[in-house]
Design a protein that fits this description.
- Residues 16-138 form the Pyridoxamine 5'-phosphate oxidase N-terminal domain.
- This is Pyridoxamine 5'-phosphate oxidase family protein.
- It holds the Pfam family PNPOx_N.
- This protein has 174 residues and is an alpha+beta fold.
- Helices cover 22% and strands 44% of the residues.
- The protein has a single domain (3-171), classed as Electron Transport, Fmn-binding Protein, Chain A (Pnp Oxidase, Chain A, Roll).
- A six-stranded antiparallel β-barrel has the order 2-3-4-7-6-5.
- The longest helix is centred in the N-terminal third of the chain and has 13 residues, at 12-24.
- The chain is globular, with a radius of gyration of 17 Å.
């Protein structure tokens, strides 16, 4: 399956709209992290996001992925609707960035972001759970209705959530 690269940039407004739609499409994500000794780990979590495209989630502090974030903040996150069927049209988003365990005012901000997405959140006591935030550096969009069949668009993400097109790849079936 050859991969064709397009030299034509995707409009920032269009990329931003697709990104926001994809982040809103599912409340669950898969978070990949790496342990101190280089072992990969993946975890599924409910997530929320803010206007700067920071992703927040909460988790038990001693869970493997939480320990991984404290020792090596590099994470990759996948968001997609698992009820999609093969031969689509399909969609999903891959997020790449640096995560950290939150403290102080950042926890209050994360709770507000999380509470806006999950109404029942405020009613629960999550005890030893902590909040984590991923500051995105790069993302990869996949939305066949909006971008074309088997088309993946990669963009850099600035600290304020602005996207800058990096490349478009189209996977061709032989």
């Amino acid at each position: 399956m050859p991969i064709e690269r397009s030299a034509t940039p995707i409009d920032t407004t269009r990329m931003t709209a697709v990104t926001r739609q994809l982040l809103d499409a599912s409340t669950l994500c898969s978070i990949a992290s790496v342990s101190a000794n280089g072992q990969p780990h993946i975890n599924t979590a409910y997530f929320a996001w803010d206007g700067s495209l920071n992703v927040v989630w909460m988790s038990e502090r001693e869970a493997q992925h939480s320990q991984n974030v404290r020792t090596n903040g590099a994470v990759a996150i996948a968001v997609y609707d698992s009820s999609q069927v093969w031969r689509g049209p399909n969609r999903g988003i891959q997020l790449f960035g640096s995560a950290d365990e939150l403290e102080g005012e950042a926890v209050r901000e994360a709770k507000a972001i999380y509470g806006r997405r999950f109404d029942a959140f405020a009613e629960k006591d999550f005890g030893s759970y902590c909040f984590y935030r991923c500051r995105l550096q790069r993302l990869k969009l996949f939305d066949e209705q909006m971008l074309g069949d088997a088309t993946f668009v990669t963009a850099r993400v600035s600290s304020n959530g602005e996207l800058a097109w990096e490349r478009t790849e189209v996977y061709r079936v032989m």
